[in-house]
Write a structure and sequence with these properties.
165 residues, alpha+beta, 4-stranded mixed β-sheet, 30% helix, elongated
C-alpha cells in the first residue's frame, strides 16, 4: 500500500469514528415529537389558555423533570438518581455541560422512579413553532395532578408557564 492510500484509509476511519461518537452522544429524545404535540395544544388553547402536559403524552408517568439551559450532566444525574441523557461517548464529546446553549431544555418523565421518556426542547425541535417552559427552570418536578400550564405568546412560538392556581 502506498502512503497516500494509508492516509485516506486513516482519514476515513477517523470520520467514521467521529460520526459514531456524534450519533451516540447527540442529545435527542426517546420521546420525539413532544414539541409538535405541545405546539398543537398551545395553538388550540391560544394566548391565555391552559394545557395539561398529560394531554401531550401517550404514556404513564409519575413526575416530569424540567431542566433549563446550562444545566450540567452532574446536576441532572443528582436529581434523577444517577440517570443521564448522555452516553459514555456523549460525556467524551460534551463533557459535563449538557444543555450548553440558550433556549435548550430537557424534559424527562419518570414512572416508579425510572426514566420512561425524555426529550430536549430547543432550537432543533421538530415543529416550526418554538415551545419553551418558563421560567427556564421550573420547580424541579411536576406531576400529572399538577401539570397545567398557562399558554403565553412568545415571539414566533409559545411559552408555557406553570399554572399556580
Amino acid at each position: 500500500m502506498t502512503r497516500g492510500r494509508l492516509v485516506w484509509i486513516g482519514a476515513a476511519v477517523l470520520v467514521l469514528l467521529g460520526a459514531g461518537l456524534w450519533a451516540t452522544a447527540r442529545p435527542g429524545g426517546e420521546f420525539s415529537g413532544l414539541d409538535v404535540r405541545l405546539a398543537a395544544a398551545a395553538e388550540a388553547a391560544g394566548n391565555g389558555g391552559r394545557i395539561d402536559l398529560t394531554d401531550a403524552t401517550d404514556f404513564e408517568w409519575d413526575d416530569a423533570h424540567i431542566f433549563g439551559s446550562y444545566t450540567n450532566a452532574t446536576q441532572i444525574e443528582a436529581q434523577m438518581d444517577g440517570w443521564s441523557p448522555l452516553s459514555p461517548a456523549g460525556r467524551l464529546v460534551f463533557g459535563d455541560l449538557f444543555l450548553g446553549q440558550d433556549g435548550l431544555q430537557l424534559l424527562a418523565f419518570r414512572q416508579n422512579g425510572k426514566v420512561t421518556a425524555w426529550t430536549v426542547m430547543g432550537q432543533e425541535q421538530l415543529s416550526q413553532t418554538y415551545i419553551r417552559f418558563h421560567p427556564g427552570v421550573l420547580p424541579p418536578v411536576v406531576s400529572p395532578s399538577d401539570d397545567t400550564f398557562v399558554v403565553e405568546r412568545f415571539f414566533d412560538g409559545w411559552s408555557l408557564v406553570l399554572d399556580d392556581r
